[in-house]
Amino acid sequence: MVMTNEFWYSPELKENILSTNHDPRSGEYVNRLINISRAEPDASLFQPPSDYTIVDEKDSFQITLKRP
To answer: Nearest 5°: phi and psi at 64?
Structure first.
């Protein structure tokens, strides 16, 4: 029985860009990094939602969950 693991690593991305695992018992598994964008992400992705509020945990507070 032969099992193989193969990894292709990009030092520039510091990430595995391809990894394969061949195992006769469980088959083949392939993980491939695709559609990579080196551009700066949109700043809006890191902004809190407009209804976000900060709660001071030093004082007492109440959390209310609204269920649909």
So the answer is: -115, 125
Q: Write the pLDDT tens digit of every residue in 1-13.
A: 899 999 999 999 9
Would you say 5 and 18 are in contact if contact means Cβ atoms under 8 Å apart? no
Write b or e for each residue in 15-35: b if 16 or more Cβ atoms lie within 10 A of its Cβ, otherwise e: eeeeeeeeeeeeeeeeeeeee
Q: How many CB atoms lie within 10 A of CB 61?
A: 8
64 is written with which tokens? 């209310």
Structure pTM? 0.53
